[in-house]
Design a protein that fits this description.
The protein is mainly α. The protein has 11 helices and no strands. The chain has a domain of about 130 residues.
Length: about 250
């Protein structure tokens, strides 16, 4: 008896490189391939690792620039001087703190803490935002999509975040300003991080909007809703967080 030869069914699984290029150019096509499939950890784990690596590179490249170090030192000095004026510390205490600060911008300790911070912040952001979108989908659209699928959508969008980090790093180094971004704040010659108007302009970052749009495309696919509805959810989450950072975060140094 001759054996029956079966032709394997073609797989819709895209390669890592195809997903990376696709998320940047045609996110809808990439996200369509994960609709109705079992959760795939690689779809968020690999982009997360890549984004963390680029974030650490960003830390070492940007914060070893003399111009950036001086900007940060000036900002720290200004904040401490304000504490002196408010009676929270004496001038002597301030001078001593400045002189013996082991985590000065660009110092080994600063770079180590900064790198650890990248890992923690990126991981927490991915899981927390995914949780928010998961709950939003349940309440807004009565979605039955699992948290793991939301995690995939948010994770794949990190490929955009990785590219944005590289582009921002180039802008910061080229312009010699830690506040350089593709936003109206670019037109401000003397950016003040304590100025609410300046912070509002900085929040209108086209790079960030690109990332938010890609997430919206993914959520619209797995929620089976219009892109407009998905943008409404993602944009609403962004707006709430932006307001907190601008009007409330200042009190906590955010």
């Amino acid at each position: 008896m001759s054996e029956e030869i079966r032709t394997p069914e073609p797989s819709n699984e895209m390669s890592i490189s195809d997903k990376f290029v696709g998320i940047l150019s045609s996110p809808g096509e990439v996200y369509q391939t994960i609709v109705g499939t079992e959760p795939n950890t690689k779809n968020w784990a690999l982009p997360l690792v890549l984004t963390i690596i680029i974030g650490i590179i960003f830390t070492f490249v940007v914060f070893t620039q003399p111009a950036i170090q001086q900007q940060m030192a000036d900002a720290q000095y200004k904040a401490m001087q304000k504490n002196v004026e408010q009676g929270k510390m004496t001038q002597t205490q301030m001078d001593l703190a400045v002189e013996k600060n082991p985590a000065k911008p660009g110092s080994p300790m600063f770079l180590i803490f900064g790198s650890v911070g990248v890992v923690v912040v990126m991981a927490i952001s991915l899981f927390l935002y995914s949780l928010v979108y998961f709950l939003a989908g349940k309440f807004a659209f009565h979605s039955t999509v699992s948290y793991s699928k939301i995690l995939e959508v948010n994770g794949l969008a990190l490929y955009v975040a990785a590219v944005v980090s590289l582009l921002t790093m180039v802008m910061v180094v080229a312009m010699g300003s830690i506040h350089a971004s593709l936003s109206p704040a670019l037109l401000i010659s003397d950016f003040d991080s304590t100025n609410k108007q300046h912070k509002i302009l900085a929040a209108l970052n086209l790079f960030e909007f690109w990332n938010l749009f890609v997430v919206s495309v993914g959520l619209s696919k797995i929620w089976n809703v219009t892109i407009g509805k998905a943008i409404g959810v993602v944009g609403g989450v962004w707006l709430v967080w932006a307001v907190i950072k601008i009007f409330v975060g200042g009190a906590f140094g955010m």
